[in-house]
Specification:
Radius of gyration: 20 Å
Bound molecules: NADP nicotinamide-adenine-dinucleotide phosphate, ligand G4F
Helix content: 25-40%
Largest sheet: 7 strands, parallel
Structural class: alpha/beta
Order of helices and strands: EHEEHEHHEHEEHEEEHEEHEHH
Distance between the termini: 47 Å
Strand content: 5-15%
Strand order of the largest sheet: 3-2-1-4-5-6-11
Number of strands: 13
Number of domains: 1
Length: 351
């Protein structure tokens, strides 16, 4: 049997790490693009990594940045992947209001750099674009593949551009290029400034007596939160079909931020109202009020279905944070190391 080769951009992120696990488990050789930083940013994949001199090694990492198209093209030409999963992006919505140009360059144009490199090298690979429910923005729920886009942030605008670039390369050049339109998905590996992880960390730390309060913004927004480990299976299935298409991946159920907070705090026996304070710095200039995905096409065509909903997600994320704080249980769920940032890092306050 031929061994397939995959290239993952954003392998150091939440989804990249789960996808790398999935593909290695299926026997793939996996190449990941890592951007250079002054600190190590590979914590989420360290448990998968083996010395490249080891004949058993099947995960290989390469420096590269979405803003450097020449490097991306060079990697594609050298590695000749069968499947490219393009997950890298400036993925934080609030930060995209602070850095709209960088977000447009990396999250938007970064996709065209990859597509154009694939076209120019003539590589017959399949391409996955990490599209987002944030593209629907103000369009009322439930949202599905035909729902008009109305993005509400520079991030959403950049993702709409990348979505259409993917469709355009499919239509213009016959490429197997798909958009996975994923609704919010979370896990213990979620970045600590996204609301679910921020709240799960706070609930565990407050219960342990390490802090008293957590500051949040809009508690009324509703999100369709699923479990990231399940969503990467949907990505893989999209690239195993006879032809390319676009798919929504979601649970079909939404909860408010307030609901999620309540589930996290109740799980450790606390009343959230005693510990949550408002800070306007966490509000966005424009908000996405209500996201509820209709993933019936993914269920019908891909046979993909989620099993974890927000209340269970809240519990498993709080349990992982509690375990990370408990020396005897120091290996957090699914992770070889603890959080990539300290829970008191000033960076946590920025978004
Ligand atoms: P994430 O944890 O923020 O990971 C983003 C990845 O992109 C990281 O590996 C990051 O590297 C890398 N990256 C950022 N800028 C880069 C650049 N200029 N060059 C190269 N790499 C760069 O995001 P995620 O939650 O795994 O999401 C994966 C993808 O799905 C993203 O495109 C996101 O926008 C999209 N998406 C996510 C969700 C969700 O709910 N999670 C929903 C819909 C769509 P560092 O590790 O060095 O920061
Ligand atoms: O966790 P969030 O920052 O995620 P958001 O904005 O929905 O974006 C995530 O999901 C998108 C899919 O729809 C992805 F494309 C994107 O890459 C990212 O993964 O915020 C969720 C909600 C928002 O309404 C926000 O206003 O929580 C609200 N919120 C309230 N207080 C907060 C906070 N969000 C953050 N990050 N921090 C707060 O303190």
């Amino acid at each position: 049997m031929t061994v397939k080769t995959a290239l993952i951009t954003g392998i150091t992120g939440q989804d990249g790490s789960y996808l790398a696990e999935l593909l290695l488990g299926k026997g793939y050789v996996v190449h990941g693009v890592v951007r250079r930083a002054s600190t190590f940013n590979t914590q989420r994949v360290e448990h998968l990594y083996r010395d490249p001199h080891d004949p058993e090694a099947r995960l290989f990492l390469h420096y590269g940045d979405l803003t450097d198209g020449t490097r991306i093209a060079g990697l594609l030409e050298r590695l000749q992947p069968d499947e490219v999963y393009h997950l890298a992006a400036q993925s934080h919505v609030r930060v995209s209001f602070d850095e709209p140009l960088f977000t447009g360059d990396s999250t938007g144009l970064g996709t065209t750099r990859l597509l154009e490199a694939i076209r120019a090298t003539g590589l017959p690979c399949r391409f996955y674009q990490a599209s987002s429910s944030e593209m629907f923005g103000a369009s009322p729920p439930p949202q599905h593949e035909e729902t008009p886009f109305h993005p509400r942030s520079p991030y959403g605008v950049a993702k709409v551009y990348a979505y259409w670039a993917t469709r355009n390369y499919r239509e213009a050049y016959g490429m197997y290029a798909v958009n996975g339109i994923l609704f919010n998905h979370e896990s213990p590996r979620r970045g600590p400034t996204f609301v679910t992880r921020k709240v799960a960390m706070a609930a565990a730390r407050i219960k342990a007596g390490l802090q008293d309060v957590v500051y949040l913004g809009n508690l009324d927004a509703r999100r369709d939160w699923g479990y990231a480990a399940e969503y990467v299976e949907g990505m893989w299935r999209m690239l195993q079909q006879d032809g390319p298409d676009d798919y929504v991946v979601a649970t079909g159920v939404s909860y408010s931020v307030r609901d999620f907070v309540e589930h996290c705090f109740a799980h450790v026996g606390l009343d959230w109202r005693d510990h949550v304070l408002f800070d306007e710095r966490y509000l966005r200039p424009a908000e996405v009020d209500d996201l509820v995905g209709d993933a019936s096409k993914a269920a019908r065509v891909l046979g993909w279905q989620p099993t974890v909903r927000a209340p269970e997600l809240a519990r498993l994320m709080v349990d992982a944070e509690t375990a990370a704080l408990t020396p005897a249980l120091a290996t957090p769920v699914g992770m070889p190391t603890t959080s990539p940032v300290s829970a008191t890092s000033p960076l946590l306050e920025l978004a």
